[in-house]
Amino acid sequence: HDGRSIAVMLRTYGEGAMLLLSQDVSERERNDAMRRDFVANVSHEIRTPLAALSGFVESLTTLRLDGAERDRVLELMRQQSMRMQALVDDLLTLARLEGSPRPSPDTWFSLDELIGLVISEVVGLSAGRHQLHWPGPTGLELAGIESEMHSALTNLLSNAVRYTAERGQIALGVEQLPDGGVALHVTDTGSGIAAEHLPRLTERFYRVDGSRSRATGGTGLGLSIVKHVCQRHGGELRVESEVGVGSVFSLVWPALRVRGGAEPAQLMLG
Ligand code: ADP
């Protein structure tokens, strides 16, 4: 990767050290490349709506538009600025998630209250276009940062709404796992995702269908936010999907951060 550094190490430290350094250099190069990609992606994502906005301002100042045309241009301008706003919000969320320490394991919040809040938001997003299914009260409490969990769950449910056609089904399910953890399953009967894309879904700005994502207000950052939230709490994000059938995104919360609810034995009996 870096012939010069390796040659110096060969002379100074011998072969073992050379291997160590070459690993170090390749890791650094990978990080540098990722950073460059990220900056290029962010610039591109901001540039597109910005160029559209400048074009609209130009139209408004140079063309003699009648009232209806003017309103249409203003509406398009509103959409583009919302797109930039969503992108900046998600970038700030990611930066905060990456820069802050692991959430305390003894700050508890009610899962039922969180679900109640998320439901009201998703009902608004779906606006009657889907059949929505929710769990009954669970009595569970989770430890962590409620606003982060709220953002993770909202991201998964809004994806389900955005990638599921009208009259499709969207369900939120809560499963108590045998090890004491909890899985929140967001299931949809939407477009589904081909297997080759699954490993890359949580990469920043990775999109299976870029135009659909953008047309529905996607930033390409939602799933990387969800993954970060899970990892920071010691949990994980799992995905199963089949094209044309739908997807299940599961947010797994570790046993250490779960209390209350039914005992696993009771669940099995029930
Ligand atoms: P976006 O803002 O583009 O939705 P995400 O990070 O949330 O970004 O998701 C990454 C990509 O994964 C999306 O662009 C979409 O192609 C795919 N995806 C996410 N959720 C779903 C889903 N429920 N059904 C189908 N595809 C999905």
From TrEMBL:
It is a multi-pass membrane protein. The keyword Plastid does not apply. GO terms for cellular component: plasma membrane. GO terms for molecular function: ATP binding; phosphoprotein phosphatase activity; phosphorelay sensor kinase activity. Keywords: ATP-binding, Cell membrane, Kinase, Membrane, Nucleotide-binding, Phosphate transport, Phosphoprotein, Transferase, Transmembrane, Transmembrane helix, Transport, Two-component regulatory system. Its EC number is 2.7.13.3. It catalyses: ATP + protein L-histidine = ADP + protein N-phospho-L-histidine. This is Phosphate regulon sensor protein PhoR.
